[in-house]
Design a protein that fits this description.
Strand content: 15-25%
Structural class: alpha/beta
Number of strands: 15
Distance between the termini: 37 Å
Radius of gyration: 22 Å
CATH architecture of the largest domain: 3-Layer(aba) Sandwich
Strand order of the largest sheet: 1-2-3-4-5-14-15
Helix content: 25-40%
Shape: globular
Order of helices and strands: HHEEEEEHEHEHHEHEHEHEEEHEHE
CATH topology of the largest domain: Rossmann fold
């Protein structure tokens, strides 16, 4: 919340607008914070709720609501299971109503072996010609998964030791939280850590927390890898690196996450030949690569399989959090393949549940 507030302050100043909330609001919100374990019944007096592991990011949860003998499940973001670090999304097999995300409702990710092979290829190709590999990342989960993958590739000698910079204060802090809650990792990762391997640390990795350290990356000779936020290139330090290196034909921008409409990342992903960054026109000569397999979201097949577990009982599935076209594709697929009533709610629409 503090990180978002910092970004909003800059945008508000630029657009002469008000900020949505203040540091005082954050302090008040945090005073109300309570934690709950997965699969523990919580009685709110009006209804009962239970959190189930959604496998999306560390601590992410679905919410099951029990009311008058019925169960309503809000999935939130569903994980791309099996994930490198986390346990699989838990199964829901008895929902009466399901409110489910649909971000990747029209397409599937690469297999986990394919995504690792693509990452190896992209790193080797960029390093061979002496370029910079820029990776815009979300601070939570995507960053830690990439560090885990790079740790494996470098420690096994598959790629050579090259300078790797994690250039995101929020991602650095989030990584420290991941280290603190290793108990939430899957068993394979727990065993690796138990063997003495620090999965988020390897030779030539540098955390650049301070602004001065971030600027100093420019002085490091190529080739190098820069992992920085934000994940959609709509703020954060990655934008400064893109401004510097997108015009370099030896460099590569690797997109590893969903890019929302109208973000800088989406414009680049859609094939823009030049973009404006900080008011300056930047020609895109760098190579643009995409790896969908590192997404922390379930893909189309996984979403269908998730609903399949509860298809005998579920009365209706509401598809939210997705571009309208994508949500409609998934709704049609659920109806054709599972004979499940799936709808895409419109803004402001209300539904009364029986």
């Amino acid at each position: 919340m503090r990180d978002s507030m910092g970004i909003m302050k800059k945008e508000a100043k630029w657009n002469n607008e008000d900020v949505f909330y203040s540091a005082e609001d954050i302090d008040k919100a945090m005073e109300l914070w309570e934690t709950a374990s997965y699969n523990k019944d919580i009685d709110t007096k009006s209804f009962k709720i239970k959190f189930k592991n959604s496998g999306h990011i560390l601590g992410s949860a679905m919410i099951e609501i029990y009311y008058k003998g019925k169960k309503i499940v809000f999935t939130g973001d569903l994980g791309n299971s099996p994930a490198p670090l986390l346990s699989d999304s838990e199964i829901v097999d008895d929902a009466d109503y399901l409110i489910m995300e649909s971000v990747y409702g029209d397409r599937n990710h690469e297999h986990f072996q394919e995504r690792t092979e693509k990452l190896k290829r992209i790193i080797k190709e960029t390093m061979k010609i002496g370029g910079v590999l820029m990776i815009p990342v979300f601070s939570i989960e995507r960053t830690q998964v990439l560090l885990y993958e790079l740790n494996n590739l470098i420690e096994k000698g598959i790629i050579s030791n090259i300078p790797v910079f994690l250039d995101s204060p929020m991602a650095i802090k989030a990584t420290m939280i991941y280290k603190k809650y290793e108990k939430l990792f899957n068993q394979n990762v727990k065993d690796i850590i138990k063997s003495g391997d620090d999965i988020f640390n390897f030779p030539c990795l540098k955390f650049t927390l301070e602004t001065s350290e971030s600027k100093a990356i420019n002085d490091v000779e190529n080739p190098k890898i820069i992992i920085a936020g934000s994940g959609m290139s709509n703020g954060g330090r990655i934008v400064h690196h893109e401004k510097r290196y997108l015009s370099d034909p030896k460099s590569t921008l690797l997109i590893v996450g969903y890019q929302s409409i109208n973000t800088l990342g989406r414009k680049i992903q859609d094939g823009a030949t030049n973009v404006k960054i900080f008011g300056e026109n930047v020609p895109i000569r760098a190579k643009i690569e995409n790896i969908r397999g590192y997404s922390a979201h379930a893909d189309s097949d996984d979403l269908v399989d998730f609903v399949k577990n509860t298809k005998k009982k579920v009365k209706k599935v509401f598809l939210t959090m997705g571009e309208p076209r994508v949500s409609n594709v998934l709704a049609n697929r659920l109806y054709k393949e599972l004979n499940v009533d799936a709808v895409v709610p419109q803004e402001g629409e209300q539904t009364e549940l029986q």
